[in-house]
Every structure is written in C-alpha cells, then in structure tokens.
Amino acid sequence: MNRRRRIYEGKAKVLYEGPEPGTLIQHFKDDATAFNNEKHALLEGKGVLNNRISEIIFTRLNEIGVPTHFLRRLNMREQLIREVEIIPLEVVVRNVAAGSLSKRLGLEEGMQLPRSIIEFYYKKDELGDPMVSEEHITAFGWAAPQEIDEMMQLALRINDFLVGLFLGIGIRLVDFKVEFGRVWENDQMRIILADEISPDSCRLWDSKTSDKMDKDRFRQDMGGLIEAYQEVARRLGVLNENRPAATGSGPVLVSSNSSDGKSE
Ligand code: TMP
Ligand code: ASP
User: Fold this and answer.
1) Which CATH code fits 6-83+228-253?
2) Are 12 and 195 in contact (CB under 8 A)?
3) Model-level pTM greater than 0.85?
C-alpha cells in the first residue's frame, strides 16, 4: 500500500514526498497523452522505459557538469530527485524542422535548420501551453532575464551533448523539450535541469531509415511505441538483449541497482 504523501500528479508522472527534506520521488506512469490530454492511453511498460532512459541521460549530464535534479534511481518506476521550484516554461530546442514548427512556418519536415533554435512555451494546460517570447516571460515574472540566459545556455549544452550521444547510436535528435527549476544553495539561487528527458519529450528518428522512435508514434496513431522505446533503451545500453524466455513480453532491464526488483 502506498502511504507516501503525493505532492503533484501530472499526465505521465507523480511526485511523492522524498525520504529527506529537499528531495522528492519521481514516479513514471504508463499513461500517454497528446494534444493536451485530448488523447489518452495506457501503454504498458512505458513508465519503466522512460525511468531508465531518463536516468542514463541525466546521469551523463551530471557527469559533464550540467546540473540536474536527478539523484539516483530507486526502482523500476521511480527515481530520487532534488526538490526544485519549477519555472513554468517548456524550453524546446530544435535541430530539424518537424511538428509545430513545420506547421507554423510551412517548413518541410526533416529539413536541417540553419542553427539550433530555442523556443519557450508557457506551461498552462488550460491554454494548451502557448508559445511565448522573452518579453512575456520577463513582463509576467515567470523568469528573470538572467535566468532566461542561463536556461538558454544550459539548453544548448544539453542539445550538443544529446545530439552526439544519439548520433553515436544511429539516432537523429530532431528536437526535444526540457524544464528547469530553481534550487537554493547557501542563499544562492541556481537553475538546474528538472523533469525528464525521454522519447516522450524528444523527437528521435532512426538515422538510416528515419523511422520515428518517440511519442509521435502515439500522437500519429502509428502503433509500435513500446517497441520503439525499447529499441532506444537497447541502443543506450539499458535494455538486456539476452532476456530469458520465461520472463514474458515486458521489457527486461539491465540491473545496476540492488533495489531494482522492488515494486513501486
Ligand atoms: P512540437 O513540435 O509539438 O512543438 O514539439 C516540440 C518538442 O517538444 C517535441 O520533441 C515534443 C516535445 N513536446 C513535449 O515534450 N511536450 C509537449 O507538450 C509538446 C507539445 C511537445
Ligand atoms: N504532453 C502534451 C499532452 O499531454 C502534449 C504532447 O506531448 O503532444 O497533451
């Protein structure tokens, strides 16, 4: 039975009170939504895959000095994170034209952009997360000019790192969305990467075939989402390819943590 205090429930994740002050537990659900909840489904195994994919990406980012909220994975669906004050913005970085950018500006999907482009969206479900400019962000006090600069610098470092990481495993990073939060350290405020980075929040195309390996498979009713996420996990080295025949059809994950077998 789950007696932990639930702090927040989103569309794909739940946040629970953590074991120590300043920490939270981030729980990945199997829910998939699109078009601001217009479309909803349960895709068995998605939460487990996103937990592991996000874990490996955040661990690597921590290692290269990009500050993140990730502390450690707790079990198949949960990770221990630092509590942050979420900045109410979705920061999207684009390398290739696709999705809403293609639609808005009439750009052919797949066109390499002249340079990486950063966009901000105001996190407000009731409004469908509208795109906003730096003017809106500062005028309405969602973030200070210095914080915007910091988020943009971090977003570009994350992009450079991820483009290389995915290129090395035969995947083209088309675009992705990140969220940032504020933490206080000795009276100093710092911005760190929060939320998740997974095929739910990225566009990932196979380098050779251009097959979609991300949530567009769900948005566009293509099917095969779990298989695609499994393939991303496998290429990142977190999915065990030699799974024993007896384990059934669910994803089998490489265990690097003794608490791995614990249920959520
Ligand atoms: P877009 O082309 O629909 O604006 O999406 C840009 C990127 O942001 C894409 O990788 C998917 C991701 N994204 C989210 O993670 N959450 C969202 O709510 C939306 C609309 C996009
Ligand atoms: N995450 C958003 C939703 O749930 C939109 C999307 O990812 O397409 O509706």
Assistant:
1) 3.30.200.20
2) no
3) yes
